[in-house]
Amino acid sequence: MQALELLTTRSSMPRLQAPAPNSEQLNVMFRAAARAPDHVQLMPYRFIVFEQQQLDELGQLFKQAAEQQQLSDLDVERAQQLPSRAPLVIVAIACYQNHEKVPQWEQLASAACATCMLQQAAFAQGFGAIWRSGWLTESELLREQLGVSSSEAIIGFMYVGTAVVAMPTKPDKDWSGKVRFWAG
Ligand SMILES: Cc1cc2nc3c(=O)[nH]c(=O)nc-3n(C[C@H](O)[C@H](O)[C@H](O)COP(=O)(O)O)c2cc1C
């Protein structure tokens, strides 16, 4: 896929199945993520990869998190099933460091760029992916079980796999009102 085609047609894919990216393809994804703009090279992010039977473990953690939130039985069951929507789930975490020149918002921006580039590199290799978040990003139980410290934030769950249906090319959004060429 050509770079500009990738950048101008990116579309999320929620319907995913095996195969997932292999280790070589995952390496490419993380290499791309590490190219994210990054003020003074803090690399303020990290990723945790779940695949195969580890997805069941993640489902158990989601279930326990839902129980802790005292969700309904149905929602607890739903939470447990969430990771089964893809053959690979990557938890994206922003890691904040104290730095006099780089405030937290810049580090979050960098982590978000890295996560987006991870997704783009999945697309570039023919996979589908979708970035999801929701209440689980704030779950204390999940944070603790995943070893997310008080200076870190879960910023999403990237579901990755092979698209079940052809990747839709959505029409371009009208961006014209978002750009102004300064004329004084
Ligand atoms: C930080 C972040 C969190 C998101 N969380 C969710 C989510 O929990 N569920 C969801 O369906 N989409 C979520 N999205 C949106 C999808 O990833 C996707 O961008 C959206 O469905 C639009 O599709 P598109 O990427 O093809 O334009 C999130 C996006 C971002 C950037």
In short:
The chain has about 180 residues and is α+β, with helices and mostly antiparallel strands. The protein is built from 6 helices and 5 strands.
List the helices and strands and how they pair.
Layout (H helix, E strand, L loop, with lengths): L2 H7 L6 E2 L5 H11 L11 E7 L1 H16 L4 H9 L6 E8 L8 H21 L3 E5 L7 H7 L5 E12 L21
Antiparallel strand pairs: 1-5, 2-3, 3-5, 4-5
The chain binds flavin mononucleotide (FMN).
The site of flavin mononucleotide has 8 residues, from strand 4.
Percentage of residues assigned to helices: 25-40%
What CATH architecture do you see?
A: 3-Layer(aba) Sandwich
β-strand percent reads: 15-25%
**Chemical compounds bound to the protein:** flavin mononucleotide
The CATH homologous superfamily name equals NADH Oxidase
Instruction: Give the overall pLDDT as a whole number.
Output: 97
The secondary-structure element order is: HEHEHHEHEHE
Shape: globular
- Indicate the multimeric state: single chain
